[in-house]
Specification:
The protein is an alpha+beta fold. It has 18 helices and 22 strands. It starts with 8 loop residues before the first strand and ends in a 23-residue tail after the last helix. The relative contact order is 0.08.
Length: 732
């Protein structure tokens, strides 16, 4: 199989049905699933008296509630492990509704009889290695890694910080891989078991209404087996690498049954989305018209693509776990349809020989180097022995026996010696050596001619045999056709004989009509049987279609619920951003946001490291001045730290004042006003308001109005009285 194109084989699908739980039994639930181990079929009865027909599904193997862990392992995983030891890739993954026993199938319990597929593979691998190393012709290297996919985040369960998120990377020569994933070399069952136990402690689990220990993440335990084969006739040794992926998928669930809220609801949403993406990948692989396979829709499908588990270079077994209770009818039908589609996926497994990333390749190169040194220091007799050995191999490969070749060579030597004697040549050692070599050459040429003639004759015989076989087949077909025609003729003759007996009794016309009637009845009966079969198939197809529509509607409703929940979270975050984060900061984050195609997340770009340039000094400044210093100087701050020159700024030394401001007489102002208004305004009084520096023309009415508008609290009652000259009294 090395170097030749890999043959396609379909994914093997098996179904395992768990027994009714104690809770289901106490609630009086009815079992609606029947398992036919002989026909490898699962029959699902309708829940209640709905008039629907039972649904039948056929798989590669089925296991009922009485099956043991050993039975499941022997029929499913054991052949895969044998293939991995030969250099193939293998994948075993469990799928099903939550609470149907996927983790029990893969991991199992504490006792030997309850151990699941993963622990049993450890014993098989190391027992095979121990048996192979007895002959000292093979060397092995075993590595193990353990990861989980929790809320679309890849985590290393063997890391010191198992909550850290790992990145999926892709290289042209390596494909998709997990950056930073730890892989440990193990040398015994105890070591690899301890690795498994460490990973199980770090895995995310939680309690729901349907399962107290529900797995909240998908897990992949990978075992890599490298084998160095020595002395296999192909050179100094070849490295074969087989990878075994043991996948425990989280179960699909409905919120109405599990009662999940908060974090459990978010986990369930992510689990259902990833399983839906896996279903889309399976549908695309089965559909020959689909040109695109959506591996990038989830981390789970990308990792399965990286391990060639679906549609790639691997041997894959899918274990579909179902529950038998009537209230899980929809989930059971959905799981069986899911598994039924997976049967049509075709993989092309091949042996991984001499891969670039094999660690044992270093050992092989070192062995080749040492053998080359030994060959260079060998004696000269070794090439002769090798040549003789090669010649013997060629002789063995010929159809002529060694005795015939020796007899032919001896006869030619004798004839050549006689010819030399007749020509008068001496039979010395040199002549005998030449005769021996010439006889050897002629004997080989004659043997080759005989071989070619026999080969040609065998080809002709094979061609004639093929032609004879073809003629015999055509004769057999003609004979079978003649026998069929003879049988039909005999049947017709028997019918005619029966009719003739009636004709002899005088019922010729009635007999012919009876024959026609019977023929019509037989034809009608055949048509009726066909119609019943077609009607049954139509009812089954219609039921499956109705069920598919129901599943689609339920899946659509779940997707809409997920969209609504995400929309609520988005609205809440938008409100928080609008209420507490300034718009300019939001715009800065939006400008830095960039979509990462590989990780399928939004990433923030690194801020550019811009160093502020030193400000350029102006022509009249001896050193640069900051904007803050310029603003401080403009506001009148005389602090020397804001100045460019080391010069003190001193205030002016002003002399004492020796003059006074002029203050005019109030009487002169009144006289001026009297002169201005004349005699027509005698008895008119003027009020001089010193506060507002205004003069008012006042009479008795004006004064009363002025007093009325004057606030009473303008002067405190305890204030001392001022002199009349200072109270602004009216002056006549």
């Amino acid at each position: 199989m090395d170097g030749s194109p890999a043959s396609a084989e379909c994914v093997r699908v098996v179904v395992r049905c768990r027994p009714l739980s104690s809770t289901e039994t106490s609630e009086g639930r009815r079992r609606i699933v029947n398992v036919d181990a002989e026909l490898q079929q699962v029959i699902v009865q309708p829940a209640g008296d709905t008039g629907e027909l039972p649904k039948t599904f056929t798989f590669d193997n089925v296991f009922d509630w009485n099956s043991t862990q050993s039975d499941v392992y022997t029929e499913t995983a054991k052949p895969i492990v044998d293939s991995v030891l030969e250099g193939y890739n293998g994948t075993v993954f469990a799928y099903g509704q939550t609470g149907t026993g996927k983790t029990h199938t893969m991991d199992g319990g504490a006792g030997d009889s309850e151990r699941g597929i993963i622990p049993k593979t450890f014993n098989q691998i190391f027992e095979a290695i121990q048996a192979s190393q007895v002959s000292e012709q093979q060397q092995f290297l075993v590595r193990a890694s353990f990861l989980e996919i929790y809320n679309e985040e890849v985590r290393d369960l063997l890391s010191k910080n198992p909550k850290n998120k790992l990145e999926l990377k892709e290289r042209k020569e390596q494909g998709v891989y997990v950056k930073g994933l730890n892989s440990f070399v193990v040398k015994s069952v105890a070591e690899i078991t301890s690795v498994l136990e460490v990973g199980k402690k770090n895995r995310s689990v939680g309690a729901t209404m349907m399962n107290q220990d529900s797995s909240r993440s998908h897990s992949i335990f990978t075992i890599t087996v490298e084998k160095l084969q020595q002395g296999d006739g192909k050179g100094s040794g070849h490295v074969r690498v087989g990878k075994l992926n043991l996948v425990d998928l989280a179960g699909s669930e409905r919120q109405s049954k599990t009662g999940a809220t908060g974090d459990r609801l978010k986990e369930a949403t992510k689990i259902n989305l990833s399983l839906s993406a896996l279903g889309n990948v399976i549908s695309a692989l089965v559909d020959s018209k689909s040109g695109h396979t959506p591996y990038r829709d989830s981390k789970l499908t990308r990792l399965l693509q990286a391990r060639d588990s679906l549609g790639g270079n691997t041997k894959t077994v899918m274990i579909a776990n179902i529950g038998p209770a009537d209230y899980n009818l929809d989930e059971t039908i959905s799981t069986l349809r899911y598994a039924n589609r997976a049967k049509n996926i075709k993989n092309k497994p091949r042996i991984n020989e001499d891969p670039k990333d094999a660690m044992l390749r270093e050992f092989q190169d070192e062995i080749l180097r040492l053998k080359a040194e030994l060959a260079a220091t060998a004696s000269q007799a070794q090439p002769l022995a090798q040549h003789h050995e090669q010649r013997v191999e060629r002789i063995v490969e010929r159809p002529l026996s060694a005795e015939e070749v020796l007899a032919m060579r001896a006869q030619m030597e004798q004839e050549m010696q006689q010819e030399a004697v007749q020509q008068g040549e001496p039979l010395d050692a040199e002549t005998l050596a030449k005769i021996h070599e010439e006889a050897q050459r002629k004997a080989e040429a004659e043997a080759a001619a005989v071989l070619e003639e026999r080969h040609r004759a065998s080809e002709e015989a094979a061609r004639m045999a093929a032609a004879a076989k073809q003629r015999a087949q055509s004769m057999h077909q003609i004979q079978a056709q003649q026998e069929s025609e003879a049988k039909k003729k005999a049947d017709l003759e028997a019918q005619l004989a029966a009719m003739e007996s009636k004709v002899l009794q005088g019922e010729a016309q009635g007999g012919l009509s009876e024959l026609a009637r019977r023929q019509e009845e037989e034809e009608a009966e055949q048509v009726t049987r066909k119609l019943r079969k077609l009607w049954t198939k139509y009812c089954e197809a219609k039921g499956e279609l109705d069920g598919a529509w129901g599943d689609w509607a339920a899946e659509k409703e779940e997707m809409l619920d997920s969209v609504r929940m995400l929309q609520q979270q988005l609205t809440l975050k938008d409100l928080v951003i609008q209420a507490f984060i300034p718009p300019q900061d939001v715009q800065k984050v939006m400008d830095r946001a960039q979509w990462d195609e590989e990780q399928e997340v939004w990433m923030l770009q690194q801020l550019p490291k811009k160093v502020t340039k030193r400000p350029i000094s102006t022509a009249h400044h001896r050193r640069p001045v900051t904007a803050y210093a310029q603003a401080a100087v403009a506001l009148g701050d005389h602090n020397p730290r804001y100045k460019t020159d080391n010069i003190l700024a001193l205030a002016l030394d002003m002399p004492d004042r020796t003059t006074a401001d002029y203050s005019g007489s109030q009487m002169q102002t009144q006289a001026t006003l009297d002169a201005a208004f004349g005699k027509g305004h005698q008895g008119t009084m003027f009020f001089d308001n010193h506060k507002e520096q205004q003069v008012f023309l006042a009479d008795d009415m004006t004064l009363k109005a002025h007093r009325a508008h004057r606030p009473s609290t303008a002067r405190p009652p305890t204030a001392p009285r001022r002199p009349a000259s200072a109270r602004g009294r009216p002056i006549l």
